[in-house]
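Researcher: Go.
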Amino acid sequence: MRTMSRRIVVAIAVAIVVAMVVAAIAVVIGRRARRSEAPAAVSTETAATQATAKPEYWTCPMHPEVKESGPGKCPKCGMDLVSVPASAGEPAAGASQREMPAAPRATPRSEVSIDPRRQQLIGVRTARAERRAFQRAVRAVGIVRYDETRLTDVNVKLEGWIRKLYVDYTGAPVKRGQALFALYSPALLAAQNEYLLALKTRDEMRPSQVADARDYAGRLADAARRRLVLWDLPTEALREIEEKRQAQTEIVFRSPAAGFVVEKQAVEGMHVMPGQSLYRITDVSVVWVEAGVYERELPLVRPGLSATVTLDAYPDERFTGRVVSIYPFVEEKTRTGKVRFEFSNRGGRLKPGMFANVELATAGERGMVVPVDALLDSGAEQVVFVALGDGYFEPRKVKVGQRLDDGVQILAGLKEGEEIATGAAFFLDSESQLRASLQAYEGLPPPEASASAARERLDITFRSQPDPPRSGENQFEVSVRTPEGRPVTDAQVAVGFFMAAMPSMNMPAMRHETKLSHAADGVYRGAGQVMTAGRWDVTVNVTRGGQRIGVMQLSVVAR
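Model: Structure:
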């Protein structure tokens, strides 16, 4: 028996060992199988990543709004486009509208109620939106330039050498017909001799009885003289040749215009070729000012408008001119278009190269105008606060036109005669956003949905006993009346208290609401708790049949 029991124990032990070995082998085989499958999975993920990393669109590093389907140059700055893969989180060039990022939502705002005493303390003022005529002043910085229509280039049409120079420095004033230089030219000397020979032949043929011979001699002399005229030989030189009947070795060339020498290439003894520029003369009695006007102001500028210029050299003087030309392009780097102004320059006080401050008065227009400090511009939207009376201010989105020196043009959103808040508008905006956030926290309808219901404009007053309230239990009283003074007795009134969270003090946001019961004559009373001392935002909600018909918001400081 003992032998059999030992055999049974040994058999069981062997079976256990075999089972453990089998299990170990199975584990090893499973691990190897998973390892063999891992490269395939990795390769699959890599392929997916590579497929995703393919460029979905091409954009400009300086102008990310540019999106092209392939490589190339940026149409705005000329830089090479770079590829942006889909992994960068940007939509592809051909992405559908559903894949495009959503437009930023407008900031929620609510109506604000401020009593007259607080309006005076914080400096709230109102102004009337009015339609009036206005002019917009366009200011730009420019440079005084020469009038290109008054530039004259002095050159010769034949080869020669300058023997003598009469005007020998840049900036010299010259008069029309003034001697500039004396030129020796072999070709010109030969042409003079030919002309003298033609004159002699014409004189000898005058007594001839042959008419054709006389005509031929006359035409020959005229042709020789014409040749000298086309070479710009001065009339005085021609007259002297005809009178003295002697060729001149040096011909004096004179200035064809009056002005100042702004460029001089002529040097005494210089070899001159046909067409070579020797002097450049300009008349500075009229000058140009070329100024860069921003592209958003270019539509206001047109030829003929009057303009004034001030210069650092004459700070107390203003020079009057007019617009004569607008360049047909805009500078890409500065985003300005060149506008040319013409100014009279008596005494030559406006010197080319000077910097000039240009002010242009545009044509008068009419439109709705509000003060500058009445507009709140966040970039995405423009808002003004319309005074509705009884201390109520309504945020109103408007469409803005031109920005003037003393106001802003309103294209849409306001009616003529409406009162708007001007002073402390930023305070109204912060209070409005706070009220809207509070309403959203309390689960009230959004300001847009409740605005129409609040048009009834109930007269709501709130009191507490004690006043101001204390931490603990207080008595609240709310009076609700119509604008005509009739009591509202069939409403439900609730007073909500809200204090924002203060993370620095490890204090969460607190909120509680007290429902009041109608006592008599539109007066609602009830007892409620104020959890702690401090500033509380109080909202009085008046509802009827589940619809809010009135709301009042204020702040109290509990002691």
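Model: The longest strand covers residues 314-331.
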